[in-house]
Each structure stands twice: as C-alpha cells, then as structure tokens.
# Entry
Amino acid sequence: MRIGIIGAGNIGRAVASLGISRGHAVMISNSRAPETLASTIQAIGCQAGTPEQAAAFGDVVVIAIPLKNYQSIPADPLAGKIVIDANNYYPDRDGHIAALDRQETTTSELLAKHLPTSRIVKTFNAIMAKDIEADGRPSGSPGRRALPLAGDDATAKRVVTGLLDQFGFDAVDAGHLSEGWRFERARPAYCVPLNSVTLSKTLTATKRDNFVAEASWRH
# Structure
C-alpha cells in the first residue's frame, strides 16, 4: 500500500516508521519543503514531498497536523481517497473553535466538511506518538492494545482496521464520524492503553460531560 502523510511531527513520523517496517511505500510531508525532511527520510527510509504530492501519492493518506491548519489540506488530490484523521483539538494551540467548544460537531466532521469527497476515518489520535511504535503486538496477543476508530464509510473502516492490525493493534469501531467525540482529547479513552473489551466498554459509557483532567493521560 502507498501511504501519504501530511504532517511530519511525532505522530506522522511514528506512522511513517511503522509503515516502512511493514513493507508499505510511504511519503511524508510538512508545511515547509521536502528538503527540510532530509534527516527524517534518512532515519526512516521513506520519501518526502509537499502536502500536495503526499496527498496524490497515497492510497491512504494520514492527516497529522495542528487542527488549526486543517483548511490548508489540499482537497482535490484527496478526492475519493481514504483519509485517516489523527488530529486533536488543543485550544491553547489551535485557538478556540466555537462549534467544538459547544460540542456541536467533532474534529473529524470539520475535516470532512473541508474534504467532502474523501472517506474520513478517525484514528491514531488517541495514542501517544511514542506508543505507536512501542505498544504494537502480534494479532491474538493477550492484552493487545486496541485503538478506537470512527467513520461513515464501511469499506474505508475495514481497510484502516487491517492497517491497524498490521501495525500491532486491535481496532474498536466507535460508530459514525459523529461519534468520534468519544475518544477526542480529554475523554476517558484518550491515550489510555486498553484492550478491545475494555476500550469498547469505555467508549460506550462515555457521556458528553465526561472529561478527564488535562494532561492526565501522559505517562
């Protein structure tokens, strides 16, 4: 599979590294220029490009940038493609977004409005970057960590579930994209290592007013 990554921060680099280790072709990009990623491509063995090139390159494209910049993502080359949304809303970084503060929408639904012809699947947002490479286990391993996902396209979710399995994680489907709030920042399942049974129960039990203390998920 060809994986394009828009965003060369910790999450983007971790996904790129795992993608290469599992035999995928990977192109990573940032908001500056491909030549600024020389050390990354040397360390990981991936390709580098512009966001437009990474979007055109990938069969699956991962978005891992500050949420405030989501409208900079090129829409045309992502038409019809599976887009993995790893974004999170941090008001101190992103500024306040009124619709999110009022819980009228979700981070992924904002992205879906910007990319109306893409097939958005939210995942990789509820795990620390260092854990993406460290926590994966072979399928069937006792206590294997699970990651939540949400999306409106069943086929896209199956593809992403398969990718998560290759990377060493079970997948727990939280439902439609509108249910992605259940594992956004500061929710009980956010960045907490849980197996599939416990994660499923946690997502189901999460209510709109369920938040955990800021940064309590860091470990």
